[in-house]
Write a structure and sequence with these properties.
single chain, alpha/beta, Aminopeptidase
């Protein structure tokens, strides 16, 4: 079966167990560099943000991918100031370039520096950006069936501003976006759990996520949920990260992330607190997920009657 072959390829590239190969080491390096002190917390419209953007753009360029900047502006509520943000967009052409596309997202902004204290945001969301870059590198080695847009979003911490700007002016008609896959906080969990949300809103998504659970190695434990109000509205993640902007426009979505932990939105969320094995296996999981979604995207459009 094609996806099982690709699963084996993903394991080879990412390294299912120590020692980790250079592909996995790059993912770790991405988190380390993006959450370093000189990034100053990657606050929107700051020098640290510009440095992070330059790094991410350089990584895409090293893969041979052309990068387009998508600037946007919004008014900050607390003081009425106009804030400028920038999304980075690249794409990998699929073997069916005229069909549906997949948009993979991860926000690169974080909280910046507050009262002289840097909020490095290693998990939130240098880890998700590293996952995005790993997906880009993996897809670039083995061409996907469908065209995939990879978007490093700005302004998530300001209210999903970059994601909203993207869905308001997407590079292809919104109706062509078959699926949004969003990564936000994928590197640490005291209970060893990575959540995949989106199944409650889409039988197609639920079936594919259940297949990922069956294919999983057990570290991290992939769990489904956080996409209904069953455990309270505060535990429903449908609108709590950038996929929310896609969901609001009727786009099918999947979100990979961990539950809150003691370092969440704290200065202690730095590279030293990232558990190596959990993170690398989480990256392996999201790379495998991308091949599975790509392999079966056409059945989603049929089931949705699109």
């Amino acid at each position: 079966m094609r996806r099982l072959l690709l699963a084996a390829t993903a394991v080879l590239l990412l390294g299912a167990s120590a020692p980790v190969d250079s592909f996995g080491e790059r993912a770790l390096a991405d988190v380390r560099i993006l959450s370093a002190e000189d990034m100053a917390g990657r606050g929107i419209e700051t020098e640290g943000s510009a440095r992070a953007r330059a790094y991410i753009g350089g990584r895409f360029s090293d893969m041979g991918l052309a990068v387009v900047e998508q600037p946007f502006t919004f008014t900050r509520k607390r003081d009425g100031k106009e804030i400028d943000g920038v999304n980075l967009i690249t794409r990998i052409e699929g073997r069916r370039p005229d069909g549906r596309v997949i948009v993979v997202t991860a926000h690169y902004d974080h909280l910046g520096t507050r009262d002289g204290v840097v909020f490095n945001g290693a998990d939130d969301n240098a880890s998700g950006v590293a996952g995005l870059l790993a997906v880009a590198e993996n897809l670039g080695r083995l061409q996907p069936m469908h065209t995939v847009y990879l978007v490093a979003l700005d302004g998530e911490e300001s209210g999903l501003r970059g994601a909203r700007a993207f869905v308001e002016a997407p590079p292809v008609p919104l109706a062509r976006i078959g699926l949004n896959v969003n990564f936000d906080m994928i590197s640490k969990s005291a209970r060893g759990e990575l959540y995949a949300a989106g199944g409650a809103a889409s039988p197609w998504v639920k079936a594919r996520l259940e297949e990922l659970v069956r294919l999983g190695t057990g570290v991290p434990t992939l769990k489904l949920g956080h996409d209904t109000d069953a455990d309270g509205a505060e535990n429903n993640w449908t609108s709590q990260s950038d996929h929310g902007a896609f969901a609001a426009m009727g786009v099918t979505w999947v979100y990979f992330g961990v539950e809150d932990h003691p370092e969440y939105h704290q200065p202690t969320d730095d590279f030293a607190t990232v558990p190596r094995h959990f993170f690398l296996q989480a990256v392996r999981t999201v790379v495998e997920a991308m091949w599975l979604f790509d392999d079966e995207l056409d059945t989603l459009t049929k089931e949705a009657g699109r």
